[in-house]
Design goal:
CATH class of the largest domain: Alpha Beta
Structural class: alpha+beta
Bound molecules: histidyl-adenosine monophosphate
CATH superfamily of the largest domain: Bira Bifunctional Protein, Domain 2
Strand order of the largest sheet: 1-5-6-11-10-9-7-8
Number of strands: 16
Largest sheet: 8 strands, mixed
Radius of gyration: 28 Å
Strand content: 15-25%
């Protein structure tokens, strides 16, 4: 017997129904915010991802050589592909360009619940604006997408990498040391961060002040810690975004968190993450922020920002909250009473389908009671029982599966009873 490759999944019709529901809901929300959908290929040139992150990222990729010896990789995310697309084809489009996408991503991660090697993202990028209102709208969109999908319990954390940089500057440590520290900060391993700072000759008292500032949710305290004129502009800008988010987008449920560093290398400035506290280790549903890739990819510099939502984790979070997904039903199930009524039954089925009514028909020639049982397992709203006697009158029996009520209906009138 063959088995699924590690970290991948099959989806049953019931699971697909939840996924389609979520995708429809998200597509609708993206569109209400003025975003337009795009698609990029499942695989890209390997260099697209190593250009910013270096060769180290290859460890996390499904990369391969094709038959002509080209170095390719399955995409681990969609931001770099979207910016490649933008630089190649969309630079002349009117700004801001608001693009959204759904797509499967591939990462050589260690699989566990909520973390897969093939997973789906819903995401977006906004290109050509860096106003505070653009960033506030972007964060509001991420939050609204998850709220509109039906989730109740969400935690929105907002950070700023320029301010974090100013914090690092106070410690007088090298870029290489910063890199090592951010890996720990990313995982909220603050004790280890403090220890490492001391290994880098930062006094214990200084290290602790730094860690406290990373953990505070009060801007005032971060300002006091940094205390320099240069960063004032950055704070004003940051606070303007937060004010807009709270007062005009009406999203009050957020926290400041300078410890957000984001795993990917292209971010700069504002960053944010949304968690579902009900989930365990893999609770991060969404992440994003402002970033720089356009000039690296050969385009004319322009501001860019975006985020992606983990589609699979959002489903798990909805299930954990016991969200009632809409159930699938079929309008009608047609049951020929005997072999002589099969052809007429097929004709009726085809006619209904042509009228846009979902209709299924018994293809197994099973008896009436088994057919009715089957009709209820597929959630048929009505069954049409096609018997020889009724057919003589050009009629059938229509049965309501909820109430059990039956009535005789002329064939040409069936659709009126179903619509
Ligand atoms: P990311 O934080 O790497 O950001 O991924 C976004 C979301 O994808 C995560 O918050 C998580 O929910 C989900 N995710 C990541 N890895 C896995 C996995 N192995 N299994 C299941 N879900 C996963 C990005 O990818 C950026 N491109 C987001 C962005 C767009 N930034 C700017 N624009």
């Amino acid at each position: 017997m063959f088995q699924l490759p590690r970290g991948t999944r099959d989806f049953t019709p019931e699971e697909m129904q939840k996924r389609i529901y979520l995708e429809d809901s998200m597509r609708n929300t993206f569109q209400t915010f003025g975003y337009r959908e795009i698609q990029t290929p499942m695989f890209e040139n390997l260099e697209l991802f190593t250009a910013k992150s270096g060769e180290g990222i290859i460890e996390e990729l499904y990369s391969f050589k094709d038959k002509s010896g080209r170095d390719l990789t399955l995409r681990p995310e969609l931001t770099a592909p979207v910016i490649r697309f933008y630089v190649e084809q969309l630079q002349m489009e009117p700004k801001p360009l608001k693009l959204f996408y759904f797509g499967n991503c591939f990462r050589y991660d260690r699989p566990q619940k909520g973390r897969y090697r093939e997973f789906r993202q819903a995401g977006c990028e906004i290109i050509g604006t860096d106003t505070p209102e653009a960033y506030a709208e972007l964060i509001a969109l991420a939050y609204t997408l998850l709220k509109n999908s039906g989730l109740k319990d969400l935690k929105l954390n907002i950070g700023n990498l320029n301010i974090l940089s100013a914090m690092f500057k106070k410690l007088k440590i090298t870029k290489e040391q910063q890199k090592q520290l951010t890996t720990l900060i990313d995982k909220s391993q603050y004790n280890e961060t403090s220890q490492l700072l001391q290994d880098f000759d930062v006094k214990q008292e200084e290290a602790e002040k730094f860690i406290q500032t990373l953990q505070t949710t009060e801007i005032k305290k971060i300002k006091e810690y940094i205390n320099d004129e240069q960063t004032k502009k950055e704070f004003d800008f940051f606070e303007k975004i937060l004010q807009l988010l709270k007062e005009t987008f009406n999203i009050k449920n957020y926290q400041i968190k300078m410890g957000i560093v984001r795993g990917l290398d292209y971010y700069k400035g504002i960053v944010f993450e949304i968690d579902a506290p009900s989930l365990g280790a893999e609770k991060q549903l969404a992440g994003g922020g402002a970033y720089e890739l356009v000039s690296l990819f050969g385009g004319k510099e322009t501001p860019t920002a975006g985020f992606a939502i983990g589609f699979d984790r959002t489903i798990i979070a909805l299930e954990t909250e016991k969200y009632k997904f809409p159930t699938e039903s079929i309008k009608t199930y047609i049951i020929p009473v005997n072999e002589n009524t099969i052809e007429k039954s097929l004709e009726i089925t085809t006619k209904l389908r042509n009228q846009g009514i979902s209709a299924d028909i018994d293809l197994l020639r099973r008896g009436m009671s088994k057919s009715l049982k089957y009709a209820s397992t597929i959630n048929a709203e009505k069954t049409i029982i096609v018997g020889p006697k009724e057919l003589e009158q050009n009629s059938v029996t229509l049965r309501d599966m909820k109430t059990g009520k039956q009535e005789t209906v002329k064939i040409e009138d069936i659709h009126k009873f179903l619509e």
